[in-house]
């Protein structure tokens, strides 16, 4: 699969003689290439929105989100999966990353020394989906900049055959990956400054799509109130300070009141907000917060009574 417009180095204005450029010129070429991303993503907004709602629906019904990729895009999937739990307080196993040629829980050596030949192993891609027992309740987002990586295409095809939601992310269109997806997202960013190195602009575009889909799904599920991460895991001093600022800002109460509320409910920002807004005791606030996943709507309804 060839990314449209990426067949020759000279097609990327200003980067054909990259080897002869000064450091400043190289930096300018690299950074300016990223400017293609917003327009490419803008054209994909309807598909991204469709993916957000579809993924949120599977998660709301008890399914999982599986992110699958090879090479750079696989590492992006792993990064996304590891960040979602601490950011939104979701349970272990809700989001899974599958990477070509790596175990389900890769260590440092796995990440540094992945076998590139694994990208071509279609059977292994299908086996990875079977190994984590994907079902029709799950959502699978498969990412391949080229849209043609055999492992990734086979993984998404296997997921679709099991009834899972199948979302493709590629920087090419049409593509083999999109052909097996129910939702296809394909930002066309053109050629790379370093031709064929899809760890550059293509990777940035794919990461932006993953960020939008996963964060959007978490918002739709109620893990965000206003623009705040009310279910984040508060595990260090920096995050405790952030939680205090969050609760203070949202409730318009002092930092001291916010800290007292947070300490009383085990540093769960959602419950601390509920305690201060509805004047409940700690146990009541935790129970009320757990029973009302859409915090904004629930608080508005309660205030209107």
List keywords for this structure.
globular; disordered N terminus; 305 residues; alpha/beta; 5 strands
What does this structure look like?
Helix 12 (269-278) crosses helix 13. The longest helix is centred in the last third of the chain and has 20 residues, at 201-220. The chain has 14 helices and five strands. The protein has helices at residues 23-33, 36-42, 45-60, 71-88, 108-112, 122-131, 150-161, 176-179, 201-220, 237-251, 255-264, 269-278, 282-291, 295-304; strands at residues 65-69, 95-99, 139-143, 165-169, 183-185. 44% of the residues are buried. Strands 2-1-3-4-5 form a five-stranded parallel sheet, with helices on both faces.
Mean pLDDT: 91
Tally the beta strands: 5
Q: Return residue spans where pLDDT drops below 50 for at least 5 consecutive residues.
A: 1-11
Structural class: alpha/beta
**What about the largest sheet?**
5 strands, parallel
Shape: globular
**Radius of gyration based on Cα positions:** 22 Å
């Amino acid at each position: 699969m060839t990314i449209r417009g990426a067949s020759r180095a000279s097609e990327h204005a200003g980067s054909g003689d990259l080897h002869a450029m000064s450091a400043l010129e190289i930096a300018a070429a690299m950074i300016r290439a990223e400017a293609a991303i917003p327009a490419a993503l803008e054209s994909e907004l309807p598909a991204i929105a469709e993916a957000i709602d579809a993924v949120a629906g599977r998660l709301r019904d008890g399914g999982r989100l599986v992110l699958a990729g090879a090479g750079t895009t696989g590492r992006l999937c792993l990064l996304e999966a590891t960040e979602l739990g601490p950011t939104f307080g979701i349970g272990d196993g809700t989001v899974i990353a599958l990477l070509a040629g790596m175990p389900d829980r890769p260590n440092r050596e796995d990440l540094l020394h992945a076998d590139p030949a694994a990208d071509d192993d279609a059977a292994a891609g299908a086996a990875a989906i079977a190994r984590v027992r994907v079902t029709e309740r799950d959502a699978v987002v498969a990412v391949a900049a080229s849209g043609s990586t055999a492992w990734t295409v086979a993984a998404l095809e296997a997921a679709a055959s099991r009834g899972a939601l199948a979302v493709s992310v590629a920087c090419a269109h049409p593509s083999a990956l999109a052909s097996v997806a129910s939702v296809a997202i394909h930002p066309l960013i053109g050629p790379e400054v370093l031709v064929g190195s899809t760890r550059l602009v293509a990777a940035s575009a794919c990461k932006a799509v993953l960020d939008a889909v996963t964060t959007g799904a978490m918002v739709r599920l109620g893990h965000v109130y206003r623009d705040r991460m009310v279910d984040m895991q508060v595990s260090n001093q920096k995050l405790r300070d952030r939680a205090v600022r969050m609760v203070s800002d949202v409730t318009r109460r002092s930092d001291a009141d916010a800290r007292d509320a947070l300490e009383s409910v085990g540093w769960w920002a959602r419950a601390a907000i509920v305690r201060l807004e509805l004047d409940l005791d700690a146990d009541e606030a935790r129970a009320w917060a757990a029973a009302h996943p859409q915090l904004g709507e629930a608080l508005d309804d309660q205030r209107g009574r």
